[in-house]
């Protein structure tokens, strides 16, 4: 419905965050960013949860770009279940270059959301809670007691690529979930960086 309302330059993507490694479960007009079913999320941590705009479970009108560096106006809203747990995300990505011929409309569409300021404590608690749920979802499919070191490093690498460790307390949470120490997580991260 959203894509048909705004046309072929409007991409709509739905993520199932209970399966973070392949969270994209629906994409329409995916020529805008190239998102495909089965891919993982990209911008959720850095450009949504940690943005100064994140409030009331959504960010509207933040700027991203496609592989050609063309400007895209994006909005992301989290989806919670009846008990309040984050289960998914709805993302809308609109390619702006097609609007350049209509001056007034372009100026309106290219105005990015203003930074809102919920209380710092509420914002921090909400982001930490969401990150904890994503960490739990990433690890839930593994038998932690029998994971080999190499498998743990792969899990940590995935989390690092997705920006999980940018959130305060994430290293301790991951160490606890993987039954290891925070020093070990740091050593995994060092090894990942040396390997790259």
Automatic annotation (TrEMBL):
Q: Where is the Transcriptional regulator DauR-like HTH domain?
A: 132-190
Q: Which InterPro entries match?
A: DauR-like (IPR039446), DauR-like_HTH (IPR039445), YheO (IPR013559)
Tell me which Pfam families the record gives: HTH_22 (PF13309), PAS_6 (PF08348)
Q: Which domain of life is it from?
A: Bacteria
Give residue ranges for domain YheO-like: 1-104
Name listed for the protein in its UniProt record? Transcriptional regulator
- Which organism is the protein's source? Oceanobacillus profundus
């Amino acid at each position: 419905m959203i894509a048909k309302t705004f046309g072929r330059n409007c991409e709509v993507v739905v993520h199932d965050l209970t399966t973070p490694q392949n969270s994209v479960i629906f994409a329409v007009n995916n020529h805008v960013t190239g998102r495909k079913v089965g891919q993982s999320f990209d911008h959720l941590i850095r450009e949504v949860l940690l943005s100064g705009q994140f409030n009331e479970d959504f960010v509207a009108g933040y700027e991203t770009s496609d592989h050609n560096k063309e400007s895209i106006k994006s909005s992301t809203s989290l989806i919670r279940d009846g008990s309040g747990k984050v289960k998914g995300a709805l993302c809308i990505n609109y390619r702006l270059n097609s609007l350049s011929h209509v001056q007034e409309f372009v100026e309106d569409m290219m105005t990015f959301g203003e930074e809102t300021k919920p209380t710092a404590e509420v914002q921090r608690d909400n982001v930490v809670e969401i990150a904890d749920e994503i960490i739990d979802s990433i690890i839930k499919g593994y038998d932690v007691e029998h994971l080999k070191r190499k498998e743990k490093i792969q899990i940590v690498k995935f989390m690092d690529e997705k920006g999980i460790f940018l959130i305060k307390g994430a290293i301790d949470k991951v160490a606890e979930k993987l039954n290891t120490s925070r020093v070990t997580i740091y050593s995994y991260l060092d090894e990942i960086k040396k390997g790259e």
